[in-house]
Amino acid sequence: MNQALKQSGTVLTLALLSGAALAGGTSGARQDGMLAVNGAQIHYVSQGSGTPMLLLHGYPLSGELFARNRDALASAGYRVITIDHRGYGQSVAPEGDAGSIQTYAKDALAVMDQLNVPSAIIGGMSMGGPIVFEMYRTAPERFKGMLLIDTIANPANVVEKAVWGGMAQKAVTYGPQSLVGELLKDMLTGQTRLSKPGDAKFLGDIVKQASVAGDVAGARALSERPDSLPMLGTITVPTLILEGVEDTVYPPPFAMKMQQNIAGSKLVLIPGAAHAAIYENADAANRAIVDWGRSQNFR
């Protein structure tokens, strides 16, 4: 790992573990509700009153993935907006359009419109990353900055396509709850699963909230996601990449590759965390985001 961290031209910061939450400020008023968006009902939460920051969850989670980030980021001067993609959490998809990368991106942009947010720092975890890339392809002017969290720019290879196909089939056959065991072994480190069963239960309960149609659509979206590697060089907004050191779904080399191809981007490795690093080690992730934001002087 030490040798990898010294790669030429790569800016890496190893975030330190800390039990203390970020201090200072008030978290601001919280709003939540449902919005009619592109034929779907999309649930959102908005907290704080500063620079808008839209955070998009991964498969098959919900905006509650960011439950440990809202207070700290709102206290640091951000208006934190999270949504549940159609078919996940409290959101409802219309029949015949359960979702795709393109549809999720259109939904997120429409939510920004309805909440009167012309531009924002836009971030995505795992499946949220390809959605963020799609949003940038279609509406780069909506971005103040970009957060890429335990995600990937590469298209799915043949092995990954088979994995997502299996996930979809299992959801159809046995229901969304059957995916909990399949996913939590990658979402959280073994140490966290053993020592903090409440964390595993929290994420597991989110997985159970998804609809079967949502699980199938998300799996297909990941399997068929566009190749975003060619567009990395076109990203001109400030970009922060967060990566769990122990992520086995999209391991650190993928994050390093993105950092090398996005000019001026910063990569922060989150220790003691796997694929759901933004939740598992939220203190380190929050600190990294706030420090990066201060260095960019966002308005």
Describe it for me?
Residues 52-281 form the AB hydrolase-1 domain. Residues 1-23 form the signal peptide. It comes from Deinococcus aerolatus. It holds the Pfam family Abhydrolase_1. α3 packs across α4 and α5 (158-174) packs antiparallel against α9. The protein is 40% helix and 18% strand. It has twelve helices and nine strands. The chain starts with a helix and ends with a helix. The longest helix is centred in the middle third of the chain and has 17 residues, at 158-174. The protein has one domain (2-153, 227-296): 3-Layer(aba) Sandwich (Rossmann fold), CATH 3.40.50. The chain has 299 residues and is of the alpha/beta class.
Please tag this protein with its features:
single chain; 299 residues; alpha/beta; Rossmann fold; 9-stranded mixed β-sheet; 40% helix; disordered N terminus; AB hydrolase-1 domain-containing protein
Strand-helix topology:
Layout: H1 2-5, E1 12-14, E2 30-37, E3 40-47, E4 51-56, H2 70-75, E5 78-83, H3 101-114, E6 120-125, H4 128-138, E7 143-149, H5 158-174, H6 180-187, H7 190-195, H8 197-209, H9 212-223, E8 239-244, H10 252-261, E9 266-270, H11 277-280, H12 282-296
Parallel strand pairs: 1-9, 4-5, 4-6, 6-7, 7-8, 8-9
Antiparallel strand pairs: 2-3, 3-5
Helix pairs in contact: 3-4, 5-9
